[in-house]
Amino acid sequence: MSELEQLRKSILQFRDQRNWQQFHNPKDLALSLSLEASELLELFQWKTSEEAVEKNLDKMKEELADVLIYAILFANETDLDLVKIINNKLQKNNEKYPIGKFAGKNTKYNEI
């Protein structure tokens, strides 16, 4: 069993022990995922990136963990294979952003 699968099972066990699956529909999980990502983003408000990381790294770890937990729960509820969809997205991005055109550039594909 992969580490990702072990992690998914641990998350589901935590959820199931609390009888929370009833609240975990795709819409509410997507909402929670967005809210947790916003909490991570809020740690950067009014600071440079360096200041934020230096001051809030422990909180960032917790918020990032919340984001990932909700992402794993969303994938579980929608029967998505995270490894497969991430590999597919990386392949699309590889085609969309070829190294020769985009290495070292922060422009979007429609700006070139």
Automatic annotation (TrEMBL):
<protein>
    <submittedName>
        <fullName>NTP pyrophosphatase (Non-canonical NTP hydrolase)</fullName>
    </submittedName>
</protein>
<dbReference type="GO" id="GO:0016787">
    <property type="term" value="F:hydrolase activity"/>
</dbReference>
<dbReference type="InterPro" id="IPR025984">
    <property type="entry name" value="DCTPP"/>
</dbReference>
<keyword id="KW-0378">Hydrolase</keyword>
<dbReference type="InterPro" id="IPR052555">
    <property type="entry name" value="dCTP_Pyrophosphatase"/>
</dbReference>
<dbReference type="Pfam" id="PF12643">
    <property type="entry name" value="MazG-like"/>
</dbReference>
